[in-house]
Amino acid sequence: MVAGGALGGRSGVRIPSGKWIARTDIGGAVAARYGRPLVLLRRESLLRSLAGRLTAGSVLFGVTAVDVEMTRRRATVQTEGGAYEGDLVVIADGAYSRLRSKLVPGHPGVRYAGYTSWRLIAARPDEPVDPAETWGNGGQRFAVLPLDDGHVYCYATANAAPGQRGGDERAELRRRFGQWHRPIPQIIDSVTSSDIIRTDIVEIAEPLTSFHVGRAALLGDAAHAMTPDLGQGGSQSLEDAVTLALVSEASRSVEEALQRYSDLRVRRGADMVRRSHRSGRLYQAPSPIARAVARLMSVLPAAALVRPLAPVMNWHPPSTAPGGSEASQPDIKGERQLARVSG
Question: Which of 6, 142, 165, 324 has the highest local Cβ count within 10 Å?
Fold first, then answer.
């Protein structure tokens, strides 16, 4: 188990003055309905845990893959330092995947979702911190969430034209959020510009009809880049990886395994892209609309708010029996822990 911060207790939505417009226990409701908590953890902690299960030397760092070549029986990855050959290649080079462009020529790639984002990890303030998102004008949001005993994870968004990042992102956060309620200004002042990651939000422009070509499998953002509004980018990548591993073990050939992988994952990937897109449009909507949604959240029971998450939360790995499928059942508890991966 990777250590992280379980989200529970009262949380909600505030406005820049600090006034609460919605308070509810979403984390507790998720744990009660689905049997597992929402957990926030550092990306490096998750990767270290996963890498620890591999044999020494399995992972090469600082090596750039520049091309993939395939024959009927083998696949070869060309890197700046040499070539590596195997039965299949897993392409997981992110939303702007260069290798996806090679395998699926003519695909439009990703499109800008209309807003930019900032992420940072800061020391936990001395004052009490209530988990919350604060919503302002122009799609401006700033979230403060507990990460571990000594730190908080923060993310912020704003509607903006793409490619507008400056040289000092802390100054940009100060300009946008420096007059908002405590502890947001104090958190911004506690970090340096180099501690802040700014990312323009993109999503796959058109769903892929297959997640494999020849002996190469597309996985994660390379296959289904989505907005972060459901916290599903990293989670869907893990689902992809588990599914590919299981069908590879159970299939009689690489071709059969990859076809089954696509059959199981294409539809779900496209569905998560759509769900995330709809959530993002709602959260980045003009302030009166977004705040009306938040006030509606405040009057609904937390259990009702988490019920629509069933298609996200209730996934479990496919059966390894021939013809087995993934399952997503609306009322089975404890099937899956949804982790928002940070860092």
Answer: 142
